[in-house]
Design goal:
- This protein is of the alpha+beta class.
- The protein has four domains: 107 residues, Helix Hairpins, CATH 1.10.287; 102 residues, no CATH class; 58 residues, SH3 type barrels, CATH 2.30.30; 92 residues, Alpha-Beta Plaits, CATH 3.30.70.
- It is 44% helix and 16% strand.
- The strands form three sheets. The protein has a five-stranded antiparallel beta sheet with strand order 7-6-5-4-8.
- Strand 10 and strand 11 form a beta hairpin.
């Protein structure tokens, strides 16, 4: 509706013309602290905010405004082909940019320019191509610059770590030689000396991280060492258990190399104790590896730690025999045998009265010199021979039956005559050999030397890994 009065209409037109120039420009966004935010771009940062006023010249012309704005937009390098057109104080912005913040910044810049009446912002925000590697290259460039900046610190940290590594090796060797005369177990010396070297190396790592400003990481490394050890212990429980058992066995020394032991039902001569297993050579020439944890938790019978060993055997005689005479004969054989010890004294005891009178004999021998099985065979053979000489019957418990009262038997005369004839023609029972050891028994000496020779031919034995032998020249670092 037209204004009714010309003066009022003229005033309204003046207000409409002046209003775009007097309206405040869009305020830039502000952060929580009240400061204007900055649009971020790799390699370039915009100013804190667009200038509140860009003075060109008093009563600037349109071409002057255009040249000023275009030069500013090109100098930022945020815009592709920026173009500025100014007509009657109205600024038209054209071109492309990669972020909305840059587009808004260009509009604020034009609004705050001197003698600008209005701004038409036609700058388009283009999305980067998926094959555009400019951001990645810019990131690599930043990483390279940061690396070059931190290179002196990295070299200094490596130098410190190298020096502490040398100190760790020296501390390991020094602690090993200091403990050489105090701890006789080589494995325990190795473990303690290596732990000392590890502590020195961890100290150097802490110093490096502390210098680099990574204090929290340094504390995490030191605190996580125990956690790492716990995790490794759980993951390798069997290996850790065998390793700890090998340390305890090498410290306690329940056996030595060459000892005859019985572990978990396996009897053999000890050949080697390493960090995982104990190797035995059985009497049958078989090489057996038993985990150290099994040995440490099992009952160990060592037949060599005390060379004197007691053996026994049982022998039955008939009820018509004199028990005292049989005991004396057996005891005399034991006393005269060269492999039987006189102290402790052998003994012959009546064990039971069953189908036969069972006599059990006990005697001692030196297990380091004589074989228990061969000595027992020799004694049994000589006792049987002595019983035969003194007509002491040795009944067969599987066939002989003793009746308490007589059993009537009717014999035919012909059969009785044949029996007498056969009895007269039967040969005399041969006597046992009087020699202490026969060729079949192979002597009375122990088989330890034979097993030792067999063990030398076995594979898988490395004397450097044997924890039962001391090697003063070996060091924990090689």
């Amino acid at each position: 509706m037209p204004f009714p009065y010309p003066p009022v209409r003229t005033l309204a037109l003046l207000v409409l013309l002046v209003l775009p120039r007097t309206l405040p420009a869009d305020e830039p966004t502000k952060s929580d602290s009240g400061e204007p935010t900055r649009p971020v771009v790799p390699g370039k940062e915009p100013p804190v905010k667009a200038p509140t006023r860009v003075e060109v010249k008093p009563e600037a012309r349109d071409d002057q405004i255009r040249e000023r704005l275009e030069s500013i937009l090109r100098s930022t390098e945020w815009f592709q082909a920026p173009r500025v057109k100014v007509q009657e104080g109205v600024v038209f912005l054209e071109g492309h940019t990669t972020q909305e913040e840059y587009r808004k910044w260009a509009g604020d810049l034009a609004r705050n320019t001197q003698d600008v009446a209005a701004v038409v912002n036609r700058i388009e925000v283009t999305q980067p191509s998926p094959w555009d590697f400019s951001l990645a290259l810019a990131g690599l460039g930043d990483l390279w610059r940061d690396t070059l900046t931190a290179l002196p610190m990295i070299l200094f940290a490596l130098l410190i770590l190298f020096l502490f590594s040398i100190l760790a090796v020296l501390a390991t060797r020094a602690s090993y030689f200091l403990l050489r005369n105090r701890i006789t177990v080589s494995l325990l010396r190795d473990v303690i000396s290596r732990c000392v070297g590890l502590l020195v190396f961890l100290l150097g790592l802490y110093v490096v991280l502390k210098i680099s400003g990574l204090t929290r990481l340094a504390l995490t490394v030191l605190g996580g060492t125990g956690l790492l050890g716990l995790i490794i212990g759980i993951a390798f429980r069997d290996i850790t258990e065998n390793f700890l058992a090998s340390i305890l066995l090498s410290v306690q020394r329940p056996f030595q190399v060459g000892d005859l032991v019985d572990v978990n039902g396996i009897m053999g001569f000890v050949q080697q104790l390493n960090v995982r297993t104990t190797m035995l050579m059985t009497l049958a020439g078989e090489q057996v590896q038993i985990p150290n944890s099994t040995i440490y938790k099992s009952v160990i019978r060592n037949y060599t730690s005390n060379p004197n060993r007691r053996e026994d055997f049982a022998l039955g005689i008939g009820y018509e025999a004199d028990i005292t005479q049989a005991q004396e004969i057996t005891l005399r054989v034991l006393m005269e045998h060269p492999a039987v010890l006189l102290e402790p004294e052998p003994s012959v005891l009546v064990e039971s009265l069953d189908n036969t009178i069972l006599l059990r004999s006990y005697f001692w021998l030196d297990g380091s010199k004589h074989s228990p099985g061969r000595v027992k065979s020799s004694v049994l053979r000589l006792v049987k021979r002595a019983f035969q000489q003194h007509a002491i019957p040795i009944p067969d418990t599987a066939r002989e039956v003793i009746f308490p009262s007589a059993v009537p038997v009717q014999l035919v005369e012909a059969r009785q005559q044949n029996r007498n004839t056969d009895h007269a023609a039967s040969p005399v029972r041969p006597q046992e050999s009087r020699s202490i050891s026969t060729q079949a028994e192979g002597g009375l000496h122990t088989e330890a030397h034979q097993i030792e020779e067999q063990a030398k031919q076995a594979r898988g034995l490395n004397e450097d890994d044997n924890l039962l032998t001391e090697s003063s020249n070996r060091s924990p670092t090689g």
